[in-house]
Amino acid sequence: MVLLSRYGTLVGFVLMLIVFGVLADSFLTASNVANVLKAAAAMGVLSIGLTVVLTLGDFDLSIGYTATGAGMLAAGTAQSFGMVGGTAAALLFGAGVGVVNGLIVTRLGVSAFIATLGVGQIITGWLLAYRGGVQVSGDLPPDFTLLGRGTLGPVPFLVILWFAVAVAAYLLMERTVIGRRMYAVGGNPVAARLSGIDGKRVRLLAFVLSGVLAGLGGLMLASSLGVGNPTAAVSYLLPAFAASFIGAATLREGQFHVGGTIVGVLMLGFLANGLVVTGVERAWTTAAQGIVLVAAVTISTFARKVAAR
Q: Which residues form the signal peptide (predicted)?
């Protein structure tokens, strides 16, 4: 039973790859794999930030809106101050949203669910006001799309950046004092407080990291699209949660962790692509994400019960 809770997701992922590989000759080609990884990169970065927050038992429902706003602001700022200015604007925007979320949750005592949902709606209103709610395009510097469309050999820059963020986040969570404190606060807040850990500060840091990574994800998406779109990443919230919960049912019994989230992102990415290349209707592609989320939460909950026993 423990083996199932730890490795069941990985076995299912491998079986899925085999099935789609048999049904479609183009599925496991190098070009298709590269395209899947590139398409999943921005959502992968958002999912890592969300995982950090989930580790502490909190939620961040604003990541899709934050990424969208960061992408819009990056494109608008880049028109006047170049790609460097656009990058700084996106990251600062994400950090600012993270600080606001963290302060509302830790200082005002509002639940993370309500706080981040409300902040997300505020960003939605701002998106309607910024540039009249119209996508930002034209007069963008030539290097604005370099990050989103450039490659290092056969590997897209977006994929390199995604995995660099993943490695950094993994090292932070698994190899540093900060990471151990986050796991401690998420596992038992009372025991962590009695051990001298400032839970509020740790939770605030988690929200800031989530916001920064959402801002980076928005920048990646805007660079890939070549425009700042006012709805670009709004739909990324459900897949990010699905990836995180799939990760919680991978290798560890019900614990959120970066490595598992990467597996979740890859699983969703290849699932969506496999359904497309095998000719499945788009409606089922969208529905499959919801089905996978429910299954992942069920497996994760079951795994937690097994671990508790």
A: none
